[in-house]
Amino acid sequence: MRMALPIYAARLFGLDAGNCGETKIKMNQKISNMVHFIDAETDRTIAQLRKVAEQTATVSYDQILNTDTSKVMTKVQEMRLAEEHKRQVEISRLVSKARLSVQEAQHKRYKDLKAVCAKSLNEFTRNTAEYTKVMKTILNEAVECCGLTHASIQLLSRDAGMFAAISGHPSCKIELDKQVLPETAIGGFILQSDDGRVRIDCTLSERLEQGLKCMEPMVFKTLFPTAVSLWED
Q1: Is 173 helix (H, G, I), strand (E, B) or coil?
Q2: How far is CA 29 from each of CA 24, 72, 110, 216, rounded to the nearest angstrom?
Q3: Do 47 and 122 belong together in one domain?
Q4: For the segment 87-104, what is each residue's pLDDT rounded down to a tens digit?
């Protein structure tokens, strides 16, 4: 009696039906274990990949955030510097304007003082006796200072009448110049040697100008006793 081929093969290899069932169970168990292992490894690998991805994403986000913050801070700093520069320029402009206003005010006061002095000198020239005496003294000093022997003198047209009274110097022959001084000279004279090498301006306007220039520090201190902080850098 012939056996079925599977049973015969099983018996040939020492496997009966019971053994085949046990083998199948063991194989299924191994396969199941392998599937579980693969699933576990897959889950572990996925978890690792997810962790790496999260770390990478976090680092990238931090880098982006830091980069953006740095750019923002740089931009803010640039804007602050630009605003500060603009403010300093405006302050400098206002200070310069204030200084100019102070200068103009001081110059006006100085011009007013000069006008008052010129008016006083004009009034002085009306005192003929005193004015003539002063003119003669100044003329003698000019002649002796320069050692002149021949000279010409220019006077205001209104002062021509005093020429004889002031020109009598023993060592210098003085002639009246036909060209008269302008009224802006206030008074006084211009003395010039015959050869034109020596010219002495003794007009009252010139003496006033030189006198104020020499006295300028004292004049300004008197007119403006309070120190102006705008002059200090």
Answers
A1: strand
A2: 8, 63, 118, 119
A3: yes
A4: 888 888 888 888 888 788
Domain that holds residue 57: 27-126
Q: Which residues pair with 151 in a beta bridge?
A: 174, 193
Compute CA 107 distance to the chain's CA centroid, rounded to the nearest angstrom. 25
Q: What is the CA radius of gyration of the chain?
A: 58
Query: Hey, is 225 helix, strand or coil?
Result: coil
Q: Using a cut of 0.70, tell me whether the model's pTM lies above it.
A: no
151 and 179 share a domain?
yes
CB-CB neighbours of 159 under 10 Å: 22
Residue 148 is encoded by which pair of tokens? 């002149």
As beta bridge partners, residue 173 has 150
Rounded-to-integer distance, Cα 173 and Cα 160, Å? 17
Q: Please indicate, yes or no, if residue 10 is contained in any of the structural domains.
A: no
Domain count across the chain: 2
Provide the 10 A C-beta neighbour count for residue 151: 24
Q: Does 8 reside within a domain?
A: no
The dihedral formed by the CA atoms of 218, 220, 222 and 228, expressed in degrees to the nearest 10: -130
